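Hi F.,

I've been meaning to write this up properly since the lab meeting, where we talked about keeping a consistent format for the predictions we share between groups. The idea is simple: the sequence comes first, exactly as it goes in, then the structure tokens exactly as they come out, then a line or two of notes. No screenshots and no reformatting. I'm using this chain as the first example so we have something concrete to point to.
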Amino acid sequence: MSHLLIVDDDPHISAMLTESLKAEGYTVSAAYSGTEALLLLSKIKPDLILLDLMLPGMTGEELLPHIGDIPVIVVSAKTDVEGKIGLLLGGAADYITKPFNMQELLARITVQLRKNSREPASLSFRDIVLYTDTLTVRIGTEDVRLTRTECAILKLLMQDPDIPVGKTAILDKISLDTPDCTERSLKQHISNIRRKLQAVNGEDYIEAVYGIGFKMRS
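Output, unedited:
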């Protein structure tokens, strides 16, 4: 069964989550600060992390970039939309607000574990390799870091590189992974991907197909 790590400084919440998750058959570890979690992650690699933000010492926001390719569900009392979007763009897989319904949290955990187990490790196109687990593109020996939204868009285009994908289709197909992406922001996300890839060797790997959408440039 999957191994989950709870990072929360409230011992009552941590104990409640531990009891509920163990009852579902999960193996559970707990850390009560960002620093303790970082130390624990140097020794173990859980399948998913439940991360509070308001932690003593290193905050959840500070810890998130150090977690790597482990899916993270942020569990926090913070409710501002901009903060949620920033965390999702920064690498969090999902966000649930305290107080939360335990059945909803269990469902979100199941979805993330299912997605993580089915997702291919990498996709290739020309000299690009996209590592979907680390949100990284490698061109030659150069690594390019992508946001979760950028990775979802590029993955979709690389799956059928010769077939143009319409804007609406892109938004529909990536909506589950990237709820922050909107019709207004899609063009900017694609522009960011093109700029990051082009910075490596001057190549433009994505082209706009007039009246349709976007595809990989053959």
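Notes:
The chain has two domains: 3-118, 122-216.
Helices lie at 11-23, 34-41, 60-63, 81-89, 102-118, 148-159, 167-174, 183-201.

If this format works for you, I'll send the rest the same way.

G.
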